[in-house]
Amino acid sequence: MIIVLKAEASEQDANEILDKIASLGLKPLYMPGVERTVLGALGDERVLRQLHLDAYPMVDEIKPILSPYKLVSRELQAHDSVISVGGVKVGGNTFSVIAGPCSVESEEQLFGISQMLKQQGITMLRGGAFKPRTSPYSFQGLGVEGLELLKAAREEFGLKIVSEIIDPNDAKLMHDYIDCYQIGARNMQNFRLLEAVGEQSDKAVLLKRGMSATIEELLLAAEYIINAGNPNVILCERGIRTFETATRNTLDLNAVAYLKQKTHLPVLVDPSHGTGVKSLINPLSRASVAVGADGIIVETHLNPKEALSDGHQALTADDFATLMADIKPFVAATGKSL
Amino acid sequence: MIIVLKAEASEQDANEILDKIASLGLKPLYMPGVERTVLGALGDERVLRQLHLDAYPMVDEIKPILSPYKLVSRELQAHDSVISVGGVKVGGNTFSVIAGPCSVESEEQLFGISQMLKQQGITMLRGGAFKPRTSPYSFQGLGVEGLELLKAAREEFGLKIVSEIIDPNDAKLMHDYIDCYQIGARNMQNFRLLEAVGEQSDKAVLLKRGMSATIEELLLAAEYIINAGNPNVILCERGIRTFETATRNTLDLNAVAYLKQKTHLPVLVDPSHGTGVKSLINPLSRASVAVGADGIIVETHLNPKEALSDGHQALTADDFATLMADIKPFVAATGKSL
Amino acid sequence: MIIVLKAEASEQDANEILDKIASLGLKPLYMPGVERTVLGALGDERVLRQLHLDAYPMVDEIKPILSPYKLVSRELQAHDSVISVGGVKVGGNTFSVIAGPCSVESEEQLFGISQMLKQQGITMLRGGAFKPRTSPYSFQGLGVEGLELLKAAREEFGLKIVSEIIDPNDAKLMHDYIDCYQIGARNMQNFRLLEAVGEQSDKAVLLKRGMSATIEELLLAAEYIINAGNPNVILCERGIRTFETATRNTLDLNAVAYLKQKTHLPVLVDPSHGTGVKSLINPLSRASVAVGADGIIVETHLNPKEALSDGHQALTADDFATLMADIKPFVAATGKSL
Amino acid sequence: MIIVLKAEASEQDANEILDKIASLGLKPLYMPGVERTVLGALGDERVLRQLHLDAYPMVDEIKPILSPYKLVSRELQAHDSVISVGGVKVGGNTFSVIAGPCSVESEEQLFGISQMLKQQGITMLRGGAFKPRTSPYSFQGLGVEGLELLKAAREEFGLKIVSEIIDPNDAKLMHDYIDCYQIGARNMQNFRLLEAVGEQSDKAVLLKRGMSATIEELLLAAEYIINAGNPNVILCERGIRTFETATRNTLDLNAVAYLKQKTHLPVLVDPSHGTGVKSLINPLSRASVAVGADGIIVETHLNPKEALSDGHQALTADDFATLMADIKPFVAATGKSL
């Protein structure tokens, strides 16, 4: 429920209502604005009715939040959220490009890629230390050693670090090594993991859509994180599973446009997993720009043939330079800047 | 099989080989180029081997066509096909916009829309006279009366006509009324219909992808039309059926980029059916431009609320003007012109 | 709308109401029962209201048909329809087995299979003369020659013939050769084909579910045939297209149980296409029996390796004997007979 | 790699080879049989080649395991695994029925259901204490209090307990309360959870297929558990996500038959989630029996209308009695016993 206060309402008026909300076991929200203060009350429908807000003269308007998701909804917050990844802004008037290898493999590999990205003006590095792999016999990532390498790359090149978390117990550990937790498609409904990054950190969380998750389920997964205490969520469309086998997944750009209308959170696109075909990454990156995404996250590798995972879809240094040149005029057409 | 002749080969050399190809029951293809003449031979692998092309001194190179589709393949023809719709070009350096109502309903309706489109610089009008409807109790279209209205709109406004064919027996009848046959998603594998427009006409055919057809099946359906004698095929991605229900279909822009690499035929996008949500048509149209599509086909209606079919996804005159303004900078960014 | 007449209503009372229904342009239905006569009126909601049935004293009860499909609905007819295929009954207390090759290839092939089936007690032979193939370069069937062979098998072995129709123009031609038209998955929404077998014949029609058709769309496709005049429709689940690639299709037995509740028409299962894997045909046939299907249609071939189409999923004579033995106790458990 | 020893090989011969396997960092497996001893070596292909098994005279035959999954494969173990759930056997010649409420709600609710199940001869009770819910605002389960109630039901009625685990940290805690961990569809690829129940317990694990997981991915998820040390895995098909909306999921019985051929693990079916429609549970349970499943797991509730979750698909006491009577003749037809 959204509670719009009158222009003349004082902070004390707001607090009085917030106390009432909390006293009933509901979740109170305080959203001061330039002209008006807006309050929120989240919880059970029947309890919400017990608020009797008509008794508060400073309440101007009451609006229910119709969608099943609340905190992520544009009904609650109309303007775009801009999320900080170690100080770098994602969302708003920026088109972000996050790049890096699927897996962290060695210092040589990671520093080589970091240098290349730095030269291209990239400020955020992705790289997996913990890899969720379909087979227990596949390379599972370097673990803490990988995190150390990421931290070293951060210090050496000033890049902000995006890395995947797969265990709720790692939330605290990773906090010092990274600037943004990534939650992968397979873990989108690993609710304990969502709660862990929501409760134990205020660092940004890049939440990828599950491979057969509906848009509503993605928004409710984001709601778990924010409800647990961390509002810094970035969504990511990475392709859904369909009958088509020519591409690894079917990138759902409908979902990106739809999400931008329903939520105030930034929405990125992962064209590497979304297509699984190297030659399709550029056209789909351009399309992601044009559809209104807030950025892309792409896999790069200086020697894709020797990559320990996902080499077939990794861009080389030359490929990446071409990609950046390729999307530039489209970013300009949106009025955003890289 | 593709047979590249030497630069000094004469037309007679080519004919000799073509005769040999035909004599074995194979399909001969003659593709003269500026520098070299290229021949094709299509048919059973085992028979192809009986050609013994090493016996012809003017043959420079022989290449197998690896894909199951041949005539539509870029392996056979590397450059883009540009298809004429009543003289208007689709493909190449043009971004085409085809617009009009789902169903032709009346002269007033059709002329009103036509005038609006004309003012927006649109040259191709879509409108259904024969409607394939899920229920036998739904409006089935005006039939020949609808075709008459389309013809009248063509004469009055100079618009080229795109209209759906659903019965092989209508191919000859429709020929005089329209400039481009549309084959709908439900009929993509109605092989007798594909053969009918292939054999009985040389007018353009806009072939829509079936709602659960793979990209390869779409290309093989196009192959049916060309193999039957009509090379003027335009492909159209219109959304596929997935688990997601927030949108009517999932527009597969991966497929558009993939098709542009595999075939020389133009590829359009239908964002109206591809999303089924009016507010998503503009962002997905921009994305279609950026991904490399050769155009879009959109549903428009001056009074969507009174439309006899698909009113919820039809753009009004104002919506349409906004759409055109919206895509303009993105078309410019591709280097194409509207 | 369903109109239940009072027990004492005469045939003249019924006719009076039927005339009124027809006079308004609605479709009248006459369904005399042992105790009561039931009438039906189908058409536009607003016109239905103009019937003013309260003016007829012999009307006992009026019930709307809530589903979008009417003639196929159990709301209209509660008891199971039993459909005759050349005198052999499908539906009710029988579990039917239709078998035969994917394509008719030669007299030797067809007679060999027919003899084998006859020995197994099978009475209905399937075999394609017109084949809808994904590629124009694949074997397209023997055409009329194939129909002649099917007719010969009918005469020689007394088998009833089930064969696919792919062109509305063939409805009359095929009528003399076959006992049951088959409409394949790709043509489920080829509405002109549905109308052709509905208008031009009263022979049974085996309607297969499209590979991404919803259950409701299947029922509406059947409604097209019955609405056009032919009530003898048999439905067939043959697998839907999903992300799973271990099997050719995903056989949807949920749909069979759901259909049996919603419609009075018989429902068969095609485990050959539904799995595409020979070793899965027996277990899924048993499951089809148990879920309540009215029969199965399976592909058989005496030399699967030499089959011109679908050889990998065809059962040999031995396989088929095993299948029959395998399903027998499960058919007994349902209380039906083979 | 599977290593078949000669009949005359001694235990010492086996140990020698197992030591060699282990010394190279490969995983050794010891599978003594009545006539022959079979050994296994799992790990990197290149290392496997370094075993030089031709040097061991007691090695009779060496066979590679072709599938990507090894420990779960029938290539490794041809005979059916029978898994103990607190002493009750699942798999082999038994058809198991596990039943109970979606969520544990109260002692009254749980004991009521337990008594009813006991009367029906059921020995395994399912009930969720930790519920993975799409929305953070939905009932999340009673947690440890729920586990206490389950333990009480075990003591009172002698039922074996099956309950869902959603956090790797709960593996040890739950060990004392339950007889079988359930891993839900959303957590099928929560690899840390798979490892937790694999490493920290030897109790049975019921692993449900993810809603868009391929069969191979399910087998590899099971491989994670066994590879971590716990061989007692039971698989469960619970419906996959497709375009069809008439049912909550599409129950994939193809997968059950396919799994029974590829793996030695027992395979159950969950017709409650697999259909989401109460009236479809019985026919699909019968089909599950007939297709060769080793059992079913169904949701029951004495007052479905008051259930805190999934009430619409829960069977009442009467429904459940009907279900048991309904499947009985089909179980008999398979030669198994309830």
From TrEMBL, chains A, B, C, D:
UniProt superkingdom: Bacteria
GO BP: aromatic amino acid family biosynthetic process
Domain DAHP synthase ferredoxin-like: start-end pairs: 1-66
SUPFAM superfamilies documented for this protein: Aldolase (SSF51569)
Keywords: Transferase
Single GO molecular function: transferase activity
Record domain DAHP synthetase I/KDSA: where: 87-323
Name of protein: 3-deoxy-7-phosphoheptulonate synthase
